[in-house]
Amino acid sequence: MTETQSTEPQSKAKAGAAIVPVTPFQQNCTLLWCEATRKAVVIDPGGDVPEILAAIENANIKVEAIWLTHGHIDHVGGAADLRDALKVEIVGPHRDDQFLLDNVVNSGRSFGITGVRDVTPDRWLDEGDTVSIGELSFRILHCPGHSPGSVVFFNEPMRFAFVGDVLFAGSVGRTDLPGGDHATLIKSITDKLLPLGDDVGFICGHGPGSSIGQERLTNPFLT
After folding, report:
1. CA-CA-CA-CA torsion for 35, 164, 95, 195, nearest 10 degrees?
2. Cα 8 to the chain's mean position, in Å?
3. Spatial distance between the Cα atoms of 108 and 104, rounded to a whole number of angstroms
4. Nearest Cα to 205, choosing from 61, 22, 2, 50?
5. Would residue 10 count as lying in a domain?
6. How far apart are CA 81 and CA 57, in angstroms?
7. How many Cα atoms sit within 13 Å of 172 on the Cβ side?
């Protein structure tokens, strides 16, 4: 099941997105596409690859890459299989999450999840890098804390971001997993995300999206 939305509802849409909840963790795997070109990326294919492929076909888009926000199994478990199916590159996250990507199978075993594979990206991402799809460009923000290599994809013209598990509506990412650190996470949010501006909306890794302004005012971890 997908939930389709425009990332720019006030004017003619430049981008479209469809959320495909995957894995028992109901992770928001997101299809993102440029409306002008129908070129697309899949962000965080955590699993349930047949459902992701069906959503791609239903959206009538051409996927050209897979983008990863970080290395946890619910975000990357299906990445290797999806890369094989689509013959595209995997981009991200930051290299500091390599230890997670090298242990996807072991992580799956601890959660009772099978059918996953370890994965190595074709390109790592660093602070200030840019990734593009069609006519859309996103600046990379390295936001450690939930995991050491977590990254955020930010599009300035659309005032929109994909934040993975760094920030949620009413919460922040958990920091009790290997490599997590709460103080580092709060610093990432305070130094990197809040300065983007209150009007910036975002899709997160689980649950509903929100805006920077809403979280600045009401998020108990930030107020």
Report:
1. 90
2. 18
3. 6
4. 22
5. yes
6. 17
7. 29
CB under 8 Å to 131, separation ≥6 — which residues? Answer: 65, 67, 91, 92, 125, 137, 138, 140, 153
Q: Which two tokens stand for residue 135?
A: 């006519």
What CATH code is carried by the domain that includes residue 38?
3.60.15.10
Question: Which two tokens mark 128?
Answer: 């200030």
Give the pLDDT of the chain (223 residues) as one tens digit per residue: 445 555 554 446 699 999 999 999 999 999 999 999 999 999 999 999 999 999 999 999 999 999 999 999 999 999 999 999 999 999 999 999 999 999 999 999 998 888 999 999 999 999 999 999 999 999 999 999 999 999 999 999 999 999 999 999 999 999 999 999 999 999 999 999 999 999 999 999 999 999 999 999 999 999 8
CA distance 57 to 63: 10
Is residue 223 situated within a structural domain?
no
User: Which pair of tokens denotes residue 133?
Assistant: 């799809």
